[in-house]
Here is the input.
Amino acid sequence: MVHAATIFLSSFLLFLVQPLIARLILPWFGGSAAVWTTCMLFFQVLLLGGYAYAHALNAKLRGRGQTIVHTLLLAAAVACLPIAPAESWKPAGGEEPISRILLVLGATVGLPYFVLAATSPLLQAWYVRARPHGNPYRLFAISNLASLAALAGYPFVVEPYFAAHEQVVFWSWLFGGFAASCAALAWLTPPAAGEREREASDAGKQPYLLWLSLAASGSVLLLAVTNHLTQNVASVPLLWLAPLTLYLLSFILTFEGRGWYRPEWLWWLLLLWLGAMAWLLVDSDFHFDLPVQLGIYLPGLFVGCLFCHGELYRLRPAPRHLTAFYLTVAAGGALGGLLVAVIAPLAFNGYY
Here is the structure.
């Protein structure tokens, strides 16, 4: 229960801080699309870095080494609070904005975000040591549920009713509580046993490429559908929220572990919806018909992500390899973002 609560809080804070810090610094730099993209790139790189750290810590350190290193990192992250950027970081005008944005983000929220990003895979590994016969992958569903709560809660609850300073104070106090809970778990969890030889021998047998491809496919679907609906169909406030909600919901349902994913009936449904989505791309009659576009693309995105993430869950490794699994999934998500944001605009002349 404590593992689940700590993971929930970490993921909630992880998704809450992104719009919060962006709201604070975007006016400083003009609020352009390039500024927002830079923020998202920063958070994506740190997320992948957090997963890599969790895997390295779990794979390389035994005994109380993990506990000591992570406790020191938590203490350093708490020392960075509050996360509000100082006025001294505000540009005077005329400077190149991208590097300064990265510096501001790194100095204010970099270390706390890094620690939060590492929490879900790391605490799942600790859960396995505390309860060897439990199912740690259900904790990933809880992590995505918390992300969904933060995603929906910020524009509808936090942003309208709390001033920027209040949001910073609220987030910083919650992070302090999270750090205390995580440190307590680190010291209460049984030390890792020396199983390095068996892990090394099993590592090469894992389907890393398939994990990477499935995670990248889900990410490509999310970003491509979001771009199509928001840029080609209609500019509706918070329309981007619907695809991301369905993307997270597919993770929740598949990793919850109660058999929501049924490939025997999802296959034909996926093929049907992919055909309908392809037809809408070339059909000119319904190109700007928002109800039709939403009625085809949003269910199609959900079915596609349900298949990709359901296969990821079906192909999940033994718990001792879960940090490598999550690192590969995170790399696949980053690869999907790279394909849509960088490669596709260079290779194609429109959003397909």
